[in-house]
Write a structure and sequence with these properties.
CATH topology of chain B: TIM Barrel
Strand content of chain B: 15-25%
Distance between the termini of chain A: 62 Å
Strand order of the largest sheet of chain B: 1-2-3-4-5-6-7-8
Low-confidence stretches of chain A: 428-432
Helix content of chain B: 40-55%
Low-confidence stretches of chain B: none
Shape of chain A: elongated
Largest sheet of chain A: 8 strands, parallel, barrel
CATH superfamily of chain B: Luciferase-like domain
Largest sheet of chain B: 8 strands, parallel, barrel
CATH architecture of chain B: Alpha-Beta Barrel
Mean pLDDT of chain A: 92
Distance between the termini of chain B: 14 Å
Oligomer: heterodimer
Radius of gyration of chain B: 18 Å
Strand content of chain A: 15-25%
CATH architecture of one domain in chain A: Alpha-Beta Barrel
Largest interface: A-B, 32 and 33 residues
Number of helices of chain A: 24
Shape of chain B: globular
Number of strands of chain A: 30
CATH topology of one domain in chain A: TIM Barrel
Strand order of the largest sheet of chain A: 21-22-23-26-27-28-29-30
Number of helices of chain B: 11
Structural class of chain A: alpha/beta
CATH class of chain B: Alpha Beta
Structural class of chain B: alpha/beta
Chain lengths: 734, 288
Amino acid sequence: MKITILGGGPAGLYSGLLIKKANPAHEITILERNAAGVTYGWGVVFSDRTLASFQRADYKSYEQIANQFVKWDAIDVRYRGETIRCGGHVIAGIARMSLLKILQARCREIGIALRFSEEINDSAQLDGYDLLIAADGLNSVARKTYVEQFKPALEYGKARYIWLGASKVLDAFTFIFCENEHGLFQVHAYPYSGTSSTYLVECDEASWLNAGLDKASEAESLAYCQRLLSEHLNGATLLSNNSKWISFPTLKTRNWHHANIVLLGDAAHTAHFSIGSGTKLAMEDAIALAGALEQYADLDTALNAYELERKPVVEVFQRAASESQSYFETIKRYRSLEPVQFVFQLLTRSGRITYDDLRFRDVRFGEAVDRWHAQQTKIVNKRILPPESQPQRLFAPAPMFNPLHLRSLMIANRFVLARAVEGTPSGLPHTEQLTLPDHGILENTGYVPLLKDTYRGAGLAYVGLVAVSAEGRITPRCAGIYTKLQVEKWAELVAGIHRVTEQKIGIELNHAGRRGSTRPRAEGLDRPLRQDNWPLVSASAVSYGPHSQVPKEMTDEDMVRVCQEFVRSAQWAMEADFDLLQLSMAHGYLLASFLSPLTNRRDDEFGGALEQRMRYPLDIFDAVRAAWPADKPLSVALNASDCVKGGMTVEDAVIVARTLKEHGCDIIAVQAGQTTSDGEPAYGRSFLTAYSDRIRNEAGIPTIVGGYLTTSDEVNTIIAAGRADLCIIETSDA
Amino acid sequence: MRIGVGLPSGIAGTHSQLILDWAKRAEAGPFSSLGVIDRLAYDSFEPLTTLAAVAAITQRVKLATTIVIGPLHNNALLAKTAATVDALSQGRLVLGLAVGARHEDYAAAGIDYRSRGRRLTEQLIALRSLWEDSAIGPKLERQRGPDLLIGGLSDQGFARMARYADGYVHGGGPPRAFARGADKARAAWRDIGRPGKPQIWAQAYFALGSDAETQAGYRYMREYYSFAGPVAERIASWMLTTPQEIAGFMRGYEEAGCDDLLLFPTIPHISQIERLAEALVGLGRSER
């Protein structure tokens, strides 16, 4: 086959090398735009796994590459004057130039024609090839020629960054966080040769503009970074190589091959530099392409197989890279975290590395995290010695086993059971059921499991969605806390739990609003009762689903009445001796219906802008806060997002959470979706964690998060990183 | 985890007698259910009428559709057909529905492909109501009608399943892919606030025998999934071809919380179910 390769970077050279090696009969030409010996960028990094694949693919070049490697296994984070090290991350760096030289020499050795300074502006000019490998980078000429076929999508990051080098030796991959009068800058620095390191400086757009870097020349930018990093450079000088401030372009391409043209490396995909995988992915593409061409005689089958093998792998990296990218873009929200937690959050940012992974990689770091977290929760300090002369604790439990203090409540650990319960059914018909004294009483089907739960070792359990009135029930089987008989049963439960265990017990009060008067959920969600429906109220007269009853818009009197019901139920909860009270403002129930612009269409002082939509829920919160004992915590379940266009966003939720905190809310239980019958989050493991992280760290309030968590590793990772303070665990037998 | 077997009704060229023989063989165990798949514009048997025939010659096994392409059907007619199969089988029907993936099936039925998600949501509500309200007959074994499963991997699909159905049916793949799907289903179910757990069903393809036989299986897989382009090759690579592969696969699915796994044939020959039965008995599966 006659093969033309566009681009003499690592992907182009390596693919040429491997294809020719497998079948020397191929005639291969590599066309490179730059002159030989010219390259941009400094060092590139590979993980030990990538190195192993190089070893298998071409031992000769691997050996030469390995000879020039700088290997290290630690990540240093410099933050607020401290340097924290975490080991066990085996990474190798090499100068890009050295890598290219090795690959160029290998290519020549086996008879590949390398032509430098060949500028191709239109791949249609090229002909005489059976296969064109486009390894010509982000601005691939071949891809641009066939945009319709390849369907590329390019998205630019919000942050600005610049690649610099320095004649400075580092013994670890180093993250440096520097704050100055212009803003926050972060530096990703790593060694790539015996004498030099890459310094990549990144900041958000505001800091970049504040510092005047938009107007700075190359020399001025260099001087600015030199000043910024002076204390970290120990006299070394930063170097520029045609370096410019840019926004990271993430490229995704729907199709990687068209006719006899195939895309490789950056020409097909890019992934944010913070996970250091651009060159790695490009060279792995080369390995896969060469393998496919060797395996399949038919070109189309081979290109299909290549795309099939690589695309899912690349997509996994792109997802992790995008998590990492948005972490760095919004890093300001973590500035209040203390160094150990900040570092833990940084290392676990992409979701690929967990608490258990870090302990496995570097047990000393893991223990330092445990120690720090235990210190925060003050179970160590008996205050016999003044703080400065207290010796450090040797070992500490995993973060999930540290207590949480909310007002005077001490929750012994960080995992929580949230239980839905049923009440005794109401009689029929509707007119009687509201006056029947024995409905809505906690059933033994809920009571017994709640007592059994005390053996599970959770710090807190709470019972969910207990109605504040008959009208506020979701189904006729809803448990309530608005009659004497109901309260007696709750009091019996709470006393039973308190008698046998340290586990605390909370209750979540709810008014169903427009989601009321539905059938038991075993029959499906939000299906109106067949008969005896009771009238519903909501912020506005908008029905929940197409088959749902249209609620009545709440009048002033309704609002006063419902507020009194919440207060009365809170008082009953106090009488029953619950340890924690939670108000439901999520999932489209009554209070949530005021918060969301989709369900609140009022034109009075309770509708309109978010500030007004918050008003009634806040009124209720204030009234309940006043009625609920000052030494007991009050929690609010809040939708972080309605997950539907035009609904509440996480930005709105942060504002609501911050306001609730000002009003004396102690903790937010983060939820999402269900505001409308078609607004749902992307379900899966840990699907609420990112929302919780955002609310906790931007609104500065503790959070409870669920979202299908089942393992101690998930809980420890979330707690240690400061993404939440309590985790709801799903038990397999619930 | 219970193990069921798929009927060869989705393999082009299958003879009707084989379907009946196959069903009788399945009834003898060690299988707990019989499954059918659905294509419209293809040389295959219609799933629910096939199950009606099978209902008459079996007593024990559950009869599951994994899946029927719901949006191609009129809701009331589908409710009636399913109720009829359920009645004929004394309540053994499990009705799995999904939107399907092939444009040509929609074109053949004259249904707008883009409306499929909305149509399926409406269908779920309509089916349940038609059955519960006894609006259509025949009399159902259970008032609420057969259990409904939903297939698919879209975010909306999981929410739809948790809101309106009784369980999830996974489309196939390695155990890890199944585990992710099952986690999504359970996460949605718990978050939505349905009591208990969703039923989790899954399916896989098998071909047991000589290389030449398994090659025929692969050919069928590539052809059946050819609409998926290059992905067909990957789907074909998941086919189970030895008892060892079946053992590893079953174990992975069981650990990830699968309730019912259906193994579908790729070769329309009675020896396939016999070999599968033998392999399962060898793995300690003897439930009749």
